[in-house]
Design a protein that fits this description.
- By secondary structure, this protein is mainly β.
- The chain has a single domain (26-150), classed as Roll (Pnp Oxidase, Chain A), CATH 2.30.110.10.
- The chain contains 3 helices and 12 strands; from the N terminus they run αβββββαβαββββββ.
- It has helices at residues 15-23, 69-74, 88-95, and strands at 27-28, 30-36, 39-45, 49-53, 56-63, 77-82, 108-110, 116-118, 123-135, 138-149, 157-160, 163-166.
- The strands form 3 sheets. It has a 7-stranded antiparallel β-sheet with strand order 3-2-6-9-10-5-4. A 3-stranded antiparallel β-sheet has the order 1-11-12, covered by helices on one side. The protein has a two-stranded antiparallel ribbon with strand order 7-8.
- The chain is globular, with a radius of gyration of 17 Å.
Amino acid sequence: MTATPGLGTARLASPELLRSVFRRHAAGVAVITAAGASGPVGFTATSLTSVSAEPPMLSFGVGTGASSWPAISGAEHVGVHLLGDHQQELAATFARSGADRFGTPTVWREGPEGVPVLDDVLAWLVCRVVARVPAGDHRIVLAEVVLGDPEGVGRPLLYHQGRFTALRD
Protein backbone atom coordinates (compact mmCIF):
# COMPACT_ATOMS: atom_id res chain seq x y z
CA MET A 1 0.00 0.00 0.00
CA THR A 2 1.31 3.46 -0.83
CA ALA A 3 1.11 6.44 1.44
CA THR A 4 -0.83 9.51 0.36
CA PRO A 5 0.38 12.90 1.60
CA GLY A 6 -1.83 14.13 4.41
CA LEU A 7 -3.39 17.46 5.17
CA GLY A 8 -0.76 17.93 7.89
CA THR A 9 1.90 18.44 5.20
CA ALA A 10 -0.13 20.97 3.20
CA ARG A 11 1.55 24.31 2.42
CA LEU A 12 0.04 27.64 1.47
CA ALA A 13 0.01 28.59 -2.20
CA SER A 14 3.30 29.96 -3.53
CA PRO A 15 5.37 29.80 -6.71
CA GLU A 16 7.59 27.18 -5.02
CA LEU A 17 4.60 25.00 -4.10
CA LEU A 18 3.39 25.05 -7.70
CA ARG A 19 6.88 24.25 -9.02
CA SER A 20 7.28 21.41 -6.48
CA VAL A 21 3.96 19.83 -7.44
CA PHE A 22 4.57 20.11 -11.18
CA ARG A 23 8.06 18.58 -10.88
CA ARG A 24 6.14 15.40 -10.09
CA HIS A 25 4.01 15.74 -13.24
CA ALA A 26 5.62 14.13 -16.29
CA ALA A 27 4.98 16.24 -19.37
CA GLY A 28 5.73 15.88 -23.05
CA VAL A 29 8.31 18.29 -24.43
CA ALA A 30 7.64 20.62 -27.34
CA VAL A 31 9.47 23.47 -29.00
CA ILE A 32 7.41 26.44 -30.11
CA THR A 33 8.84 28.57 -32.94
CA ALA A 34 7.90 31.78 -34.75
CA ALA A 35 9.39 34.18 -37.25
CA GLY A 36 10.66 37.27 -35.45
CA ALA A 37 11.59 40.71 -36.77
CA SER A 38 15.29 39.92 -36.35
CA GLY A 39 15.15 36.20 -37.12
CA PRO A 40 13.52 33.03 -35.86
CA VAL A 41 12.64 32.59 -32.19
CA GLY A 42 11.72 29.55 -30.16
CA PHE A 43 11.43 28.08 -26.71
CA THR A 44 10.92 24.74 -24.99
CA ALA A 45 7.42 24.20 -23.63
CA THR A 46 5.87 21.55 -21.43
CA SER A 47 2.53 23.36 -21.23
CA LEU A 48 1.22 22.18 -24.61
CA THR A 49 -2.42 21.07 -24.50
CA SER A 50 -4.95 19.89 -27.06
CA VAL A 51 -7.97 22.18 -26.71
CA SER A 52 -10.47 21.31 -29.44
CA ALA A 53 -10.90 18.81 -32.26
CA GLU A 54 -13.43 20.98 -34.17
CA PRO A 55 -11.76 23.21 -35.08
CA PRO A 56 -8.39 21.59 -34.32
CA MET A 57 -6.91 23.88 -31.67
CA LEU A 58 -4.17 23.78 -29.05
CA SER A 59 -2.75 25.98 -26.33
CA PHE A 60 0.60 26.66 -24.69
CA GLY A 61 1.90 29.05 -22.08
CA VAL A 62 4.72 31.54 -22.52
CA GLY A 63 6.19 33.91 -19.96
CA THR A 64 5.93 37.59 -20.79
CA GLY A 65 9.55 37.99 -19.68
CA ALA A 66 10.79 35.31 -22.09
CA SER A 67 13.09 36.39 -24.91
CA SER A 68 10.67 34.82 -27.41
CA TRP A 69 7.62 36.68 -26.10
CA PRO A 70 7.99 39.86 -28.21
CA ALA A 71 7.89 37.77 -31.41
CA ILE A 72 5.17 35.40 -30.15
CA SER A 73 3.08 38.37 -29.00
CA GLY A 74 2.81 39.62 -32.58
CA ALA A 75 3.09 36.39 -34.59
CA GLU A 76 0.20 35.37 -36.79
CA HIS A 77 1.50 31.78 -36.98
CA VAL A 78 3.62 29.53 -34.78
CA GLY A 79 5.31 26.17 -35.18
CA VAL A 80 4.71 23.43 -32.62
CA HIS A 81 7.22 20.56 -32.55
CA LEU A 82 6.90 17.41 -30.44
CA LEU A 83 10.39 16.23 -29.52
CA GLY A 84 11.65 12.66 -29.45
CA ASP A 85 13.71 11.12 -26.66
CA HIS A 86 16.79 11.50 -28.89
CA GLN A 87 16.43 15.31 -28.71
CA GLN A 88 17.34 16.12 -25.10
CA GLU A 89 20.11 18.47 -26.20
CA LEU A 90 17.77 20.30 -28.60
CA ALA A 91 15.24 20.72 -25.78
CA ALA A 92 17.98 22.03 -23.49
CA THR A 93 19.20 24.48 -26.15
CA PHE A 94 15.72 25.96 -26.64
CA ALA A 95 15.26 26.15 -22.85
CA ARG A 96 18.59 27.91 -22.21
CA SER A 97 18.54 31.70 -21.94
CA GLY A 98 20.90 33.41 -24.37
CA ALA A 99 21.55 30.28 -26.45
CA ASP A 100 21.90 30.45 -30.25
CA ARG A 101 18.83 28.27 -30.67
CA PHE A 102 18.84 28.16 -34.46
CA GLY A 103 22.62 27.86 -34.94
CA THR A 104 24.54 24.63 -35.42
CA PRO A 105 23.69 21.87 -34.56
CA THR A 106 19.97 22.79 -34.84
CA VAL A 107 18.64 21.75 -38.26
CA TRP A 108 15.60 23.68 -39.46
CA ARG A 109 14.02 25.26 -42.52
CA GLU A 110 11.52 27.97 -43.25
CA GLY A 111 8.14 26.28 -43.43
CA PRO A 112 4.62 27.31 -44.36
CA GLU A 113 3.61 30.86 -43.36
CA GLY A 114 7.33 31.61 -42.78
CA VAL A 115 7.35 29.55 -39.57
CA PRO A 116 10.68 27.91 -38.63
CA VAL A 117 10.20 24.11 -38.80
CA LEU A 118 12.66 21.85 -36.97
CA ASP A 119 13.94 18.66 -38.60
CA ASP A 120 13.80 15.14 -37.16
CA VAL A 121 10.97 15.75 -34.67
CA LEU A 122 8.21 13.27 -33.81
CA ALA A 123 5.55 15.59 -35.21
CA TRP A 124 5.10 19.24 -36.13
CA LEU A 125 2.24 21.63 -36.70
CA VAL A 126 1.90 25.12 -38.11
CA CYS A 127 -0.86 26.97 -36.29
CA ARG A 128 -2.65 30.31 -36.67
CA VAL A 129 -2.72 32.25 -33.41
CA VAL A 130 -6.32 33.10 -32.47
CA ALA A 131 -5.90 34.50 -28.93
CA ARG A 132 -3.38 35.42 -26.24
CA VAL A 133 -5.03 35.21 -22.82
CA PRO A 134 -3.41 36.94 -19.82
CA ALA A 135 -2.59 34.48 -17.02
CA GLY A 136 -0.39 35.97 -14.30
CA ASP A 137 3.15 36.46 -15.58
CA HIS A 138 2.35 34.32 -18.65
CA ARG A 139 0.05 34.36 -21.64
CA ILE A 140 -1.91 31.34 -22.77
CA VAL A 141 -1.71 31.23 -26.54
CA LEU A 142 -4.63 29.59 -28.35
CA ALA A 143 -3.77 28.48 -31.87
CA GLU A 144 -5.73 26.75 -34.61
CA VAL A 145 -3.92 24.02 -36.55
CA VAL A 146 -3.34 24.87 -40.22
CA LEU A 147 -1.24 21.86 -41.28
CA GLY A 148 1.37 19.47 -39.96
CA ASP A 149 3.13 16.14 -40.12
CA PRO A 150 2.65 13.39 -37.49
CA GLU A 151 4.99 10.87 -39.14
CA GLY A 152 8.28 11.29 -37.24
CA VAL A 153 10.00 8.21 -35.87
CA GLY A 154 10.80 7.54 -32.24
CA ARG A 155 9.46 7.85 -28.74
CA PRO A 156 8.47 11.07 -26.94
CA LEU A 157 10.80 13.13 -24.80
CA LEU A 158 9.43 13.80 -21.31
CA TYR A 159 10.20 16.33 -18.60
CA HIS A 160 10.00 15.10 -15.02
CA GLN A 161 11.63 16.07 -11.71
CA GLY A 162 13.47 18.96 -13.38
CA ARG A 163 15.14 16.93 -16.12
CA PHE A 164 14.52 15.49 -19.54
CA THR A 165 13.84 11.75 -19.63
CA ALA A 166 12.23 9.02 -21.72
CA LEU A 167 9.47 6.46 -21.35
CA ARG A 168 10.44 3.14 -19.80
CA ASP A 169 9.05 -0.21 -20.88
